[in-house]
Write a structure and sequence with these properties.
It comes from Sphaerisporangium dianthi. The chain is an alpha+beta fold.
């Protein structure tokens, strides 16, 4: 067995609904120090610091997940994973944790449910009931928060600023044709939103219409590639209580349909904030047999929109590559 086969992996189901379902995500704790591909004197598995990006992209398929997340402590003196390190992980700038996200198609600048999974992984490493972390992804530093209730960890984070614009008619027509949405099912207010990567938000009239979608994924991938879109987030209009049903199609990044997409939910929260919708509860994953729930809130503070997005998570198993 070579050393890459000994890299420890946790599978985290992120964005559970009522304690079940969620999006299985592979999370690996990396070390920032030295070449680690050798077993320790105690026989413990080495951290994943020397994986290449090509190897990282193979992790999702290897574990049957849509995404893999790699967390690295910036303090190079030690790797994640030992309880004695957890005190310095909390609230200390020098102990910011770097987070990277991969699908089979390569690296992403951000991933919402992957961030929920990373926060749950860190909280599990630290033990205890409540933690705050400082995370860094794609050059942006942001806060994460975890609260444990039994085996379930409730995670929330600041997804960062969202850029919104109206789509052009060409963009809308190409995407809607690939999604197979009849014109009478469209609701007002499609939007192109950027949070790390650009995606299109498409509102349709009812949750039932969302559930019935059967897009042409090859055609959708071609349209998204041409338009520079990460994918398409199709959602129902929010109820008075802020409940939304949504599906995210992202074949361009190797994810035909995402079980849970927290960053697109944050984009929707930003889009709906000026309509007085401040809190969302979004249900996803039912079409894939894995129900998921993401929550998001939007509040004005000091002249800027503050977003918070999150979900519940549980670590279902651990193993090695």
């Amino acid at each position: 067995m070579n050393d890459v086969d000994r890299v420890p992996v946790s599978i985290v189901n992120a964005c559970l609904r009522d304690g079940r379902g969620g999006s299985p995500t592979a999370v690996l704790g990396e070390s920032a120090a030295g070449p680690p591909r050798r077993a320790s004197p105690t026989g413990a598995s080495p951290p994943a610091a020397s994986l290449t990006d090509a190897e990282r992209s193979r992790v999702p398929a290897r574990f049957g997940t849509s995404h893999a997340v790699f967390v690295t402590r910036r303090d190079s003196r030690s790797a994640l994973g030992a309880p004695k390190q957890c005190q310095s992980l909390i609230g200390a700038d020098e102990s910011t944790v770097d987070v990277r996200f991969f699908t089979t198609e390569g690296e992403l600048p951000a991933c919402g449910h992957g961030t929920v999974a990373a926060i749950a992984f860190l909280a599990e490493q630290c033990g205890g009931a409540e933690h705050r972390f400082r995370l860094r992804a794609s050059g942006r530093s942001f806060a994460g928060h975890a609260v444990r209730e039994g085996d379930v960890i409730h995670a929330a984070f600041d997804p960062g600023p969202v850029t919104l614009r109206d789509p052009t008619p060409v963009e809308t027509d190409r995407v809607i044709a690939a999604l197979g949405i009849a014109s009478d099912l469209l609701a007002p207010g499609p939007c192109v939103a950027s949070l790390g990567r650009t995606r299109m938000l498409i509102p349709i009239t009812t949750p039932e219409a969302v559930a019935a979608l059967a897009p042409d994924l090859d055609r959708l991938r071609a349209a998204c590639d041409q338009l520079g879109l990460l994918g398409c987030y199709v959602h129902s209009a929010p109820t008075s209580a802020g409940r939304v049903v949504a599906r995210m199609f992202a074949p361009s990044i190797g994810v035909p349909e995402d079980i849970a997409n927290a960053n697109s939910t944050a984009c929707l929260a930003a889009h709906l904030a000026d309509r007085g919708v401040t809190d969302l509860t979004v249900e996803m994953g039912d079409a894939l047999g894995s129900p998921a729930t993401i929550t998001a809130s939007a509040r004005e503070s000091a002249g800027r929109l503050e977003l918070l997005v999150g979900g519940a998570a549980i670590i279902t198993r651990t193993g090695t590559l």
